[in-house]
Every structure is written in structure tokens, then in C-alpha cells.
Amino acid sequence: MRAGMILGAGLAGLALLAAALSLVWTPHDITQMAIAQRLQPPSAVHPFGTDQFGRDILSMAMLGARVSIAVALVAVGIGMGAGVPLGLIAAAHRGGWIDELVMRGNDLVFAFPSLVIAILITAVFGPSAINAIIAIGIFNIPVFARVTRGGALPIWTLDYVRAAEVAGKGRALISLQHILPNIANLLIVQGTIQFSLGILAEAGLSYVGLGAQPPTPSWGRMLAEAQTLVTLAPHVAIIPGLCIVLTVLGLNLLGDGLRDALDPRLKTLR
């Protein structure tokens, strides 16, 4: 699994590097169309070829990485920022009406997938990357709330936590000082998983036109625009597809490796 973690870190790091590099440099200007060079195969000038408008696919893939990673990262931040406190509150009031209210609220959000939430949001505010972030972030909240609550409940039964309660510490202070540090490994692993799912969700939303809008590149929209060109110029569809697959694969391998490295029970088994 260590080899898988290294491979995953390498693939994820490559996507992050491409996204960071696109902030200051891309091989070509994607706002300039060159119809005479449309659908060119990979070459020394255009390593990934050109699209139907003559734009450099490598440059578009780099900018698409920035959009996909930014959307997924902010969405995970929203989910973690709201879901973790809710999970801690639910666990601290386990069995009570607050716990029940939080969990039934989570069930309500789970009833609407991120795509449905995105459709509802864009019906009111219009399609954009911001609305995609909101939709994916809302869907992430109950995920982190459940993981946090599930990890926190067993810790509340431990002797040192009960001793802290007897000593007069409040539930909020115990949650911050004793519960949260002991479930940080779970949250890190879940964050990695949701990051990869966020990239997939962003690609799916962009594919159906609910994510980033032109002229902002997106891996999902690149796939949507290339679907009629697969037989004519397959590289136009293969490149963004590989970007999505390799990035998500890398993050999943990294998440598995982090789980094995951070879970003390797995260390004991080894």
C-alpha cells in the first residue's frame, strides 16, 4: 500500500502542479482561436493536439485542472467547516433531540444528490462555478457530519472523557480538546475521498452545462464539447477524460494510503 500511496501522491501532485502553474503560465493563449490549426494531432508545438477551434488542449487541460481543483477544494472546505461542528454537536448530545434533529437534517440533504441541488440552485441563480461549489458543498455537509458523529460516539464512552465531564468541563470544550484530535485521522481521509468525488461532481455538472461557463475551461465541458468528435479526433476527448481519471485515481490511492498510515488498528494488524 505504500507504493500505491506514493503513486497516488504523484498523480495528485501532478494535477496540483498543473493547476498552480496555470496561474502564471500556459503554453498557449486559449482565448486565441486558430481555425486553420483545428483538430491537429499531438505534436511538438501542441503536445496534446488542438481542439475544434484550434486551441491548445494542454493549455486548456491545465486551466481546467485549476477550475476542477478549486471547485472541489472549496466544496470540501464548506462540507468540513459545517459538517464537523454538526457531527460534534450531535455526538455530544447523543440520544437527545439535538442529535435527532441533526441526523434527520442530514437524511433530508442526502435525499437530494448534488446534481439535483445544482439544478435547483441554477434554476434560480443561473449556472456558474460558484453555484457548483455551493451544490457540492451542501452535499458534503452531511457526509462529514456522519463521519464525525460516528467517530466521536465511541470516544465519549472512554474513561478519560468521562473523567473530564466529572471535572466540570463542558461538552463543547471536551469536543474540541479530546474528541476532535482523536478523529482527525478520519476527517483527513474522508476529506481526501470527498476531494476526489468533488472533482467528479464538478466534471459532471460542467458536462451538463451547470458548472463553469465559457470561456473558462473545465474538464467536464471539454468532454461535452468533444463527444461529437470522438471518431474524427479522439485525442480531444481522451485528454480531459484521462485528466479526470488519473486525478481521481491518485486521490483515492492517496486516501487509502493515509487511512492505512493513520489508523492505529491497521498498524496493530501489521
Automatic annotation (TrEMBL):
It comes from Paracoccus spongiarum. This is ABC transporter permease. SUPFAM superfamilies: MetI-like. InterPro entries: BP-dependent_transpt_permease, MetI-like, MetI-like_sf. Pfam families: BPD_transp_1 (PF00528). Belongs to the binding-protein-dependent transport system permease family. CDD domains: TM_PBP2. The keyword DNA-binding does not apply. Gene3D superfamilies: MetI-like. The chain crosses the membrane at residues 67-89, 110-139, 232-255. It is a multi-pass membrane protein. Keywords: Cell membrane, Membrane, Transmembrane, Transmembrane helix, Transport. The keyword Cell membrane applies. Its main location: membrane. It is found in: Cell membrane. Residues 65-255 form the ABC transmembrane type-1 domain.
